[in-house]
């Protein structure tokens, strides 16, 4: 399926808002790819001035959004695979909006072309990811919207709507990095259960998400340093004070390293969990470093 004709917009930020304002999931992905094609063709330029940005992106009538605790636990077998793919599709739909919201919300006169180019690329890849997973759902005679989902991902983004540094910390460096930690287990499950097509699709997503985390880390470092902050200390402070959840070990150190993220960013969470487990009698005491 092609991306469709390139839309006419006054600026890249205006085009990014059009993605956010598109409710239908398939149409949102198509719009994202069309805007990316227009950017690559040189027919769109950034205004470098944020305009009105939707508080929340438009979404389809389905899936029904419920609280995270109300989302049913995933079953085994065919139903479980459908539920897993549906959850990934929901994540990827959110990721489309998050990438284009980055462009629309945090545009500014000091932003270089590389900032826009990076997030256009991410936004296009997230749209392709959604299509990949939607295709795997179709193989099970299912569609996105068949199951309930929750809005926790966008809630986390809404908390960082007024601070680029916080947005970069929470979305790519916490939420997307978490995807690097858990996706290998999803791939292994699909392989065990004989769904090579879904395993392959998740593998494509996994490889490209490494690049998304790397992109977020690059711009997080640049923004922190522009503010005279140490990036590692700034990340710790944002996560501890501005994130409702917590970093969850175990971490995929190999993938995080491939994204350029050193253990300094997350090893403290491992130490905290080890200390809590020891306190609660669930584990050995944490080893002291020499």
UniProtKB/TrEMBL annotation:
InterPro entries per record: DUF455, Ferritin-like_SF, UCP012318
Signal sequence, renumbered to the chain: none
A Pfam family it matches: DUF455
Protein name from the UniProt record: Ferritin-like domain-containing protein
